[in-house]
Write a structure and sequence with these properties.
The protein has about 375 residues and is α/β, with parallel strands linked by helices. The protein has eleven helices and 19 strands. A seven-stranded parallel sheet has the order 3-4-5-6-7-8-9. Helix 4 links the parallel strand 4 and strand 5. It starts with 8 loop residues before the first strand and ends in a 12-residue tail after the last strand. The structure holds pyridoxal-5'-phosphate. Pyridoxal-5'-phosphate (PLP) binds next to loops. Pyridoxal-5'-phosphate binds next to loops.
């Protein structure tokens, strides 16, 4: 627990905005295409134990996580609320994990023929049939069956004995660039792969992939980032609602009247009369150090630029433009908010919204608004 009177930061997650973003994406899908939700990495830093149930209650029947451990924790939460959803595990079947995967009713995304053999053997030994997805590589060269493995599978369907094949899955490399030739190239490769596995459903589009058009939708979409407010159409207005607000609390304000420098390395020089507010948020909280001298805070509508380097636990902002009564110890500065959404902070830090969100720290006092939030007493989530 953290105190509301925290001397650090307050992270507010708007669960109604999350659900609205999911419905927004669902409504864009081609007829017959279901909308899943990717809640790996603790729902991109926002909290999978809160996001998962809210999304399932909104109608989402397919949740995706990256790892077995994430899947186990999520299954406990979903069961706890008496809900039901398929939980797909992107990283697939690590050696020795089949029993846990089956016991927790998780759906592995099988990434190689070896994983297919492992899951099939587990099923045949117990004379049961269990679901799995099959990831085919169409250009990411990361996970998934390359074309030659896929051909061997197509030539010998008995390799899938015991497996209830759910979705054939592939992942786009450049979906946020609508005009990138990789997109149609991967689409064609995906269609060739599907033709080798007739009857299986298909899942292709991530957040930005949904915006490439209905031919990219297939049977199940897998949006992640857009659910949490990251713009899936960079360069165009953001169609998503902001889910995250991050506020840093002012610990001290100092009036500087003589020329001096601010922070480690003396990277910011103050020449004339200036007021500097020190916030109890730093890079140990995931407020990325690369935002030093670049990122912006806001008090109300007034910008308070980050000056000097960001420290481990502290950040300094210039509040000279803010009326003095509004920049006092104990008051809050938006570090992610209406005027500086996730993508803006990411831009200032030279990274992407995904990294800003998944870096969100664990020292923040977290507030969940909307949804139906009940304390998860006694749950190991
Ligand atoms: C993370 C991930 C997604 C979600 O991507 P976003 O760009 O966040 O929508 C979908 N599919 C796979 C395989 C992923 O790893």
């Amino acid at each position: 627990m953290t105190s509301l009177e925290t001397c650090g930061g307050i992270l507010t997650v708007d669960l109604d905005a999350l659900a609205a973003n999911w419905r927004n994406l669902r409504d864009r899908l081609a007829p017959g295409c279901a909308c899943g939700a990717v809640i790996k990495a603790d729902a991109y830093g926002t909290g999978a134990a809160e996001a998962g149930p809210v999304l399932v209650r909104a109608g989402c029947a397919h949740l995706f996580v990256a790892t077995l451990d994430e899947g186990i924790a999520l299954r406990e939460v979903i069961d706890h609320w008496g809900l039901d959803a398929a939980i797909h595990v992107f990283n697939g079947l690590c050696p020795g994990s089949a029993a846990d995967m089956a016991h927790e009713r998780l759906t592995p995304v099988l990434n190689s023929l070896a994983e297919v053999a492992d899951w099939s053997a587990y099923c045949r030994l117990r004379d049961i049939r269990l679901p799995a997805d099959l990831h085919v590589d169409t250009g990411m060269s990361r996970l998934g069956l390359p074309e030659d493995e896929l051909r061997r599978l197509a030539d010998d369907p008995s390799l899938l004995d015991g497996i209830v094949l759910g979705h054939v899955v592939s992942h786009l490399t450049s979906s946020e660039e609508a005009g990138d030739p990789s997109n149609p190239r991967q689409l064609a490769a995906f269609q060739r792969a599907r033709a080798m596995l007739p009857g299986a459903k298909a899942s292709f589009a991530n957040s930005s992939g949904i915006f490439l058009g209905p031919e990219y939708h297939f049977d199940l979409a897998r949006p992640g980032a857009a659910l949490y407010g990251v713009n899936p159409t960079p360069g165009q207005p953001n169609p998503m609602a902001q889910v995250v607000r991050l506020q840093g609390k002012i610990l001290q304000v100092r009036q500087i009247d003589t020329p001096q420098t601010v922070g480690y390395g003396a990277t910011h020089a103050v020449m004339g009369p200036t007021r500097i507010a020190t916030l109890g948020v730093g890079y140990a909280d995931g407020y990325l150090r690369s935002g030093g001298n670049k990122a912006s805070g806001y008090i109300g509508d007034v910008r308070a630029p980050v000056v000097g380097r960001i420290s481990m636990d502290l950040t300094t902002v210039d509040v000279s433009d803010v009326p003095e009564p509004l920049a006092q110890p104990g008051m809050l500065v938006d570090l992610i908010g209406p005027h500086n959404p996730v993508d803006d902070l990411a831009g200032a830090c030279g990274t992407i919204g995904y990294e800003v969100l998944t870096s969100l720290g664990h020292r923040y006092h977290r507030i969940y608004t909307g949804g139906i939030h009940v304390e998860l007493d006694g749950l190991t989530t």
